[in-house]
Design a protein that fits this description.
Blueprint lengths: L1 H11 L8 E4 L4 H9 L1 H8 L10 H13 L10 E4 L3 H4 L10
Parallel strand pairs: 1-2
């Protein structure tokens, strides 16, 4: 997806079309339920995330999408935005070993 986004940014930029990708880390209702049922695993994941919390789609991801769709984002293209609390920096193990 990231390579496709960069390619599209190059090919469509002259038409005023910007192309970016958001790599989010935010919890769904199902993920919240799973994390609440597995607090030790959840803490191991959060210990690896620099901001020490999971993202929220409305508070954390939404504003980034709104910016990209706005006039303010009209010259911003071909980029990957990691909205993951810094989890990509050290490579968070999002699927740590868990017992069945």
């Amino acid at each position: 997806m990231r390579a496709l986004t960069r390619t599209a940014a190059v090919e469509w930029g002259s038409y005023g079309i910007t192309c970016n990708i958001i790599c989010p880390s935010a919890t769904s209702p199902q993920a919240k339920e799973y994390f609440e049922a597995n607090p030790e695993m959840t803490q191991r994941i959060l210990d690896q995330v620099p901001v020490h919390r999971f993202g929220d789609f409305e508070q954390d991801i939404g504003p980034i999408a709104v910016f990209l769709a706005s006039e303010g984002g009209s010259c911003f293209t071909g980029n990957t935005l990691f909205v993951d609390g810094g989890g990509h920096v050290n490579g968070v193990a999002w699927r740590p070993q868990v017992e069945d």
